[in-house]
């Protein structure tokens, strides 16, 4: 059965990005993601990688992401690929969502990813950030190269926020497809 919105099939490339994100969190590959598969797993994975303040912020960010983005208005306790495709489609069309996403990604950059606080991510910082979500360190350099848009070997806050937003709403092939790690689906 093809995944589609109420009126039309989802664009294939966009759906592949959503499948990649879904596969990243479906650790047991049963086609269902529970809150524990994302929030609890990522927070547990972050212990020892983040300091206490970063851990508190990361926990809040993950809780917010689950409640708004994954569980959605329906307050689901588990989601399938169909659920998350519908949720992403719904949330990215919601009024005010881009501002909310700017805030979430900006906080993620400022308080979690940018370890030295200089306003830029090095490959090492981006590797550490994606590691919180279980992305293997050997997969990160290609993602980093795809996301940085200048020649300084750094990802700026602006680039980070922009590519994070583009991941979900751009329906054609773009470097943003690698924001959350390798494109695997």
TrEMBL record:
InterPro entries linked to this entry: EF-hand-dom_pair, EF_Hand_1_Ca_BS, EF_hand_dom
EF-hand domain location: 13-48, 100-136
Swiss-Prot/TrEMBL keywords: Calcium
Molecular function GO terms recorded: calcium ion binding
Signal peptide bounds: none
Sequence intervals crossing the membrane: none
Domain of life of the organism encoding this protein: Eukaryota
SUPFAM superfamilies (UniProt xref): EF-hand
Protein name in the entry: Sarcoplasmic calcium-binding protein-like
Record organism: Lingula anatina
